[in-house]
Each structure stands twice: as C-alpha cells, then as structure tokens.
Amino acid sequence: MKVLAAGDLHGDQLLVRKLAEKAEKEKVDLVVLCGDITKADESTENMIGPFVNKNKKVLLIPGNHETVATADFLADLYGITNLHGYSVKMGDVGFFGCGSANVGLFRLEEGEIYSILKKAFNPIKDLKVKIMVTHVHPSKSIMEKLSSFVPGSDGVRKAVEKLKPDILFCSHVHEAEGMEEIIGGTRVINVGRGGKVLEI
C-alpha cells in the first residue's frame, strides 16, 4: 500500500491541488490528512475535492483549527472517513486516530486524547500493521523541542507507549515538517504541509 500523508493545510487551495497532483503522480492508494485542514474553522472550499476528483481514498482528522463537526461535514460531503475516534481496516493495515490538540481553538484534555485513541485502536489491534493518526505530536519528543509554544501531548505519548502502533503520522509543529524519530518501536513522522509518501 502507498500512502500520502499531509497536515496543516490551513485553507491553502493551491497546496491541496499540488498534493492531489503528487498523489496521482505517485499512484498512492490512500491520502491521510492530519488536521488543520482549515484556518480557524473557515475556508473548507476545495480542500478535499481535488483528492476525490483524482479518485483517491481519503482519511482525515480535525486539527486544533477546526471542529469535529467540520471534519464530519467534509467527510459526509465527499464520502470519505473522519478517523477521529474511529478505525479503518485496509487489508492487514489498520488506521486509527484522534484529532484536535492540547492547545488552540479546539482542544482536548490529555485524558480524552488517550481514551479516544484507545477506543479507536481496539477494533484493529490484531492487524499486522497499525498506524496511528493524530494532529499533535507526542510529549518528550524531539519535535516538541522545535517550538516554545506548541507542547507535545502526554495523551499521545501514552498511546504510543501502551498501544505500540508501528507508525504515527502527526503534523502541528510546522518547523518539524519531515522530521522522523523512533519512540519505543513506533516510527513517528511529522508529515507536514508538503506531505510524505510512504510504502507500507
């Protein structure tokens, strides 16, 4: 399976068109959007359509710039999946997620973040490959050190340590775009605005 994961689009229609072209050129099977699709819960126009128009499956989660309701609206409008609190099975690969963050306009408490991830994980826990999708990065990570005002999440960190996903896609810290690190056995990737193509 080939995946294009990206985040922090912030209503940038030109960026979305470029990412959709990248998805087509790379022949990806799936596009994963790691939140902050809009800016302050506005500018939803043409943020998903370019991917759907190229016949790409899309999973998304809300960031701290949009509500779960906005993510649900986009999912319903385009026939895609809002992964916030849910999981999706694609063969032997399971995706599960939690959107929002511990800071910003639309935030969650750390305990909520972990509980949502644990609930979403249960249906896919026995699959061969498990991929966690969040907006915010784990606390005590290298990514956290690149920003003085965007803390990592203790809830995400706990989920990484307890649930042990193979891969974590996140975004949130723009300065950490493209950065990868290993926590336990989990490959943590800040996919960023430019997106990351991965063979799974």
Feature tags:
6-stranded mixed sheet; alpha/beta; Purple Acid Phosphatase, chain A, domain 2; 11 strands; 200 residues; 5 helices
Question: Summary?
Answer:
With 200 residues, the protein is α/β, with parallel strands linked by helices.
- Name the CATH architecture: 4-Layer Sandwich
What order do the helices and strands follow? EHEHEHEEEHEHEEEE
Portion of residues in helices? 25-40%
Q: Give the number of domains.
A: 1
The main β sheet shows up as:
6 strands, mixed
Q: Approximately how much beta-strand content do the residues carry?
A: 15-25%
Enter the CATH topology name. Answer: Purple Acid Phosphatase, chain A, domain 2
Shape: globular
- Which structural category fits the helices and strands? alpha/beta
**What's the name of the CATH homologous superfamily?**
Metallo-dependent phosphatases
Report mean pLDDT, rounded to a whole number: 94
Uncertain segments are: none
What order do the strands of the largest sheet run in, or round the barrel if closed? 5-6-7-8-10-9
CATH class: Alpha Beta
Task: Count helical runs.
Answer: 5
What Rg do the Cα atoms give? 15 Å
Q: Kindly, what is the distance between the CA atoms of the first and last residues, rounded to a whole number of angstroms?
A: 5 Å
